[in-house]
Fold:
Amino acid sequence: MSRYVIKRILLLIPLLVIVSFIVFALMEAAPGTIVDNMITGVMTEEEIAELRAQFNLDRPMIYRYWRYMVNLVQGDLGVSDTTGISVWNTYISRLPNTLILTLASLIVGLSISIPMGMLAARRAGKLTDTLTTSFTMIGMSMPSFWLGLLLILIFSHWLGWLPSSGNRDGFRSIILPGVCSGLMLMASSTRQTRSSMLEVLSSDYLRTARAKGVPEKVVIRKHALANAWIPILTTIGNSLGVSIAGSAVIETVFAWPGVGRMTVDAVMARDVTAATGAVIMTTVLYVLLQLLIDLSYVFVDPRIKAQYIGVKRKKPRKKPQDSPPRNTSLPAPVSAASSKSEEARTFKPPIPEQEPCPPPQPEKAPEPKSVPEPSPVYASAKNSQPSGAGSSALISKKYKKRSRFADIFHSLRKSKSAMAGLVIVGLLFITFIVSLFISFDSVTATSPQRFYSPSLQHLFGTDNMGRDLFLRTLYGTRYSIAIGFGSVGIAAIFGIFLGAIAGFYTGIIDDIIMRASDILASIPSILLGMVIVIVLGQSLQNLIIAVGVNAIPIFIRITRAAVLTVRGQEFVEAAKAIGLSNIRIIFTQVLPNSLAPLIVTITASLGIAIIVGASLSFLGFGVPVPAPEWGTLVSAGRDFIRTAPWLMTFPGIFIMITVLAFNLLGDGLRDALDPKLKRR
Structure:
């Protein structure tokens, strides 16, 4: 095990070098520098040049990166360009707050998800299972920043039980951010716990344990849960990694002084040193957390432990050397009893003589029997049935095999949740089409009707500038739909192509593509999205690119796994035998037979992309104001949460319903395309 740990830690070194270079280069490529805010109108050219030389801005970027890496090797993350304080000291002072928030989310998430998932699995198909599944789907569809604002509105402003921000009130300060982060973890963990327990509960060893009289609680806790821990731990590890990397959103909502908020401030201030150092340290935490999750498998599965420490193999038992060798040249003595038994075994009774068979006689034709006349009812029924070609056509039409698309739609129709998601998606597209006929001037025009509450005149009320929130929310549909489909399209094009190449060719090409994918996946998605938007500028197109780049590793892994299962099939070998090129085989033979997991991934990624895009807009890195994107609307309504809570409520509901629809549709497609789960 120690060799495995050392290997993983050594692989962290080149990963940090590449990640630091990517972040450093992107921050350097961003428009503007740290000295732009320091230059005044009375400064001369010599003073400006001296100021730029102080931050080495007169040197090339490679020189600045080299100096940064030399200091990093010595354990120095540099000094912040804005505050003048050591980045290491700032990060270490804020790290405990982030770790406390992560620990609180872990406690809240596991204390709810494990019992709820086990209960749903034991009562699969019943009301408890339906309610649990619905609750988890809603929890996965709620953006964390909107859920945090709802918790602040209810428990801080309305009830006055808990503080709304900061960490000045001790344990009471961590409750709201911990619950908000824990509910996000709870949703994914509950689904995975239910899925893993369903696979285990039908196992033979559980039936054996029950047959032996083991109590049901012991069977569930000791046998079922113990064999379902690995996928649950994997989901928990991924969720915690996302929680640490995406803590910038929750820390911004609750004004929590953690490393996520520090990173957001550094990126917005163009502080290259602080931003690079924060991303590097967050990447280190993410990789170490994944390592701990991998090592935890040893403690829950003895088979994995055997792979690390080895198992003593049983040596073949040697024959005793002192026994005399068998002499096969002499016949063995035969006793009388054995000779009699041998004769009994070899005795064959005589076959009696058979008489010759008589010649065959010709058969007589049977006499015709009188058949009664059919009754009128039978005759009418017989005449009503089709005969001949018409009957065979009717039977073939009845039992005709459905096409692949018809089979999928037939399975979707049996799932009420999938059909509900499909209906909501259809309504969203209708709303998207309606939004195309709404002019931009009508949603940005101000009026004296400010802070009007929802009414028949203004269905969603008005904002602080008198703008109708209903029109602005409808108009924002075009942004969210464009972000979802545009970013997933970018990720699918690049991810499917690279994943197909890696899975088909394998070898060194596979290693290069997968290592590049691992590097890209190790950078926190929210942080990478912020840096990309800063470099390219704030616009809808650049936001789509930022969200799409984060989703590429997912498609690479899914496509590679699907291609690996298909590339050895007979039809691929036949295509090679007739002389088709590899590229043609990939796109005409391999990928068409690998579409099932890709379709499910595309559907599931749509909801994730919408949430990531809304989160970036909420942090101020999305579509620029006054464009009414849903995340921007929630961010604007945060300032008026006491006086006008509807400003952040209705856009958040639209985000949740949209993501929920795609999640429901994705689950239905997964059941329809998976032969193990397909409803017949």
Observations:
- The CA atoms of residues 179 and 336 lie 89 Å apart.
